[in-house]
Amino acid sequence: MVTVKIDGREVQVEPNSTILQAAEKAGVHIPVLCHHKTLNPFGACRVCLVEVVGNPKLMTACTTPVTDKMEIVTQNEKLQKLRRTVIELLLINHPLDCPVCDKGGDCMLQDLTFEVGLTNVRFDPKPNDTPFDHTNPFIERDIDRCVLCGKCVRICDEVVNIQAISFINRGTETYIGTSFDQPWNCEYCGQCMSVCPVGSLNNRVYLFKNRPWNLEKTESVCGFCSCGCSIIVEHEDNEVYKISEDPDLGVNHGFLCAKGRFGYELINSPEREKTPKIKKSGEFSESSIEEAIEYVAAKIGEIKGKYGADSIGVLVSPRVTNEEAFLAQKFAREVIGSNNVFSFETVNALPEGTYEDVENSDNLVVLNIDVTESNPVLGYAVRRMGRKEETTLSVFYPKVTSLKRVATNFFTGKPSEVYEKIENFVNGLKGDGEFKDLAESFKSAKKPVLIYNPYDELDLYYVNEIKSLVSNVITVPCKIKNNSQGIIDMGCTPYYKPGYVKTEAQADFRKVLEDGSLRALVILGENPLLHPEYSDLGDILGKLDFLVVTDPFMSEVAELSEVYIPVSLFAEKDGTFTNFEGRVQSLNKAVDNGVISDLEFLALLSARLGVNLPKGIDEVQDLIRKEVPLYNDVDFNGGTVKYPFVLDGAFALKKVSPKGKGKFKVFPGSLRLHSGSFTRRSKDLSKVYAEPAVEISISDASKLNVTDGDYIILKFEDTTRKFRVAVVKGMPDGVVSLPNDFKETADLFHKGKYLKVDLVKHNG
User: Fold this and answer.
1) 3-class secondary-structure state, position 294
2) Which of 341, 411, 426, 755 could form a Cys-Cys staple with 666, CB 3.0–4.6 A?
3) CB-based contacts of 650-655 (< 8 A; 24+ apart in sequence)
4) Which tens digits make up the pLDDT trace of 81-132?
């Protein structure tokens, strides 16, 4: 430790700490403009200049490391005058349009102008009048307001690693722009906008809708994927206006993806139902929640009395909270008396690695998953790891992804070829094959990490092999939904009770539906018709003796139900989610749209059936701590669960054999920003992909005479579908990808994960 004195306050800090870090520890405020704690020091704005006793030059606090016995002055008339001059110079070209600027009230330049006491600018202002740039669907760019702090450029480089924007020109002609002033070619994450200190980059979803001083802020957790990002829900009068970030909150360091930052409009969606519905004579009619609960209880009681408890099942979505999932299995097992509690989540692969493990790894393998799309913020961690010196990042995936920029090795090709390369890598771990050197470096690494797709049995087979051959490897299963892990922890599977206690009587969801033993089904937020494996079950589900569905939206399966109950979304309830690390985090209710939660539905229904389940969050959490051993001592505000196993099951080595006879090989891929299951409800995310798109190589697109945005006809056996084209630079020739969880594609992939199809240009 070194000792420094700042404005008379003595403080001890780590060696190589900057003056700014030392000042923060001492409780001394130094103004900044270009500095951001998640970025490398830059020292461009000069607002943080300070005096170091004994040094004739002024020093930038954000870049200058402290030395032992250093004495620093941060406030005097000389420094204050200098800072005023810096702000005056910035205001020469900066338009003074604060009343109509969306950043008004949340602008660092405004705050600094006030802080330095600047009331009169000595220089003649020469504001420009450049038109706003709306080529990005989510971000409005006004280069006239830019102060050239470089934060946007640096975060796009250092964190997202896309380098979509940069400094253009030099001197007084400098501006932030894209190469050759082309439209933005980026991931639409909004990181640049999040660090912009002025109104140069504004949120188009929020633009001109409210003012920051009107908004309440509620800390919560994102409800889109299993990354478990902490967010700030900004709201007024039960409407969400913005999702923002806090670098000091949660495991995501304030980083968000397009889904988490811009997808929140689905909360305010006019498509949402507010009133329960009961189907009579084939038509839905509105009812009160009391009437609907009474009706559901009567039907369940009738079917249980006639066919027994095992004729009733509960299907649970990974969108629900841990508390709701815990009550769901309790409702099935204790209220109904049935072990028929289902989810579509894997029970074979459990969390082991964390964000920290990924970032600190010296050798990382990404196995057959586009982590930058499935789990974007985890993808940022992989990129940060890949940028470090003396690290190795190897990726196996059919097409080139954003990781190509930082990957040491990137293996692509037809799906069968990719698996051959994975097989060769595993053989290399055994001392054989063409990847022997690569495998040996992974095996001898100090901190090897493996990121993989836990939903494919063949992938699990190879993960199991690697795990057995590399004793210290840490595995990271990329779970998909926000609480994919938590609902299994809570026992929403016929194979395990809460805490992974194996059950005796086990049932298969498809089997009990097809053999007719399941007569009634309660679906909590799930939609089987969008899952390729179950997309063919619509007729059976529609013919059940009784089907009740809770969902924030009237989904495809809800249309088949006899009773539909609209329920709350993640910003409208309290509870916890467990992310892909096994980290338990609390979400807090920000708004109320007048609908009940799944927890309230289960408590009300159970009470009507004669069993009182707890309906308060604190009560349910106390019960979880008591009945789920894994959660006994876990902090529900960031604690991590310790799991009894990493992999469990006998995984078979199967040959990849695409079905069909076409010329093109199709594999299920992830579209940027969203899937067809949930985020399709966000009109803003749909600006980029409102429908599933066929991703195709540049060469194949040329041969088929199609360009980006055209339509193409896909032919598979007796099925013909029309899809929009997305031309992708890194797609191998003869290979195309298609998302598998849109309603237009789920039934295609029901016939096989990998397909052979023919493609022809649509001439309509």
Assistant:
1) helix
2) 755
3) 651/348, 651/457, 651/458, 651/460, 651/461, 651/464, 652/457, 652/458, 652/461, 653/458, 653/461, 654/457, 654/458, 654/461, 655/416
4) 999 999 999 998 898 889 999 999 999 999 999 999 988 888 877 778 889 9
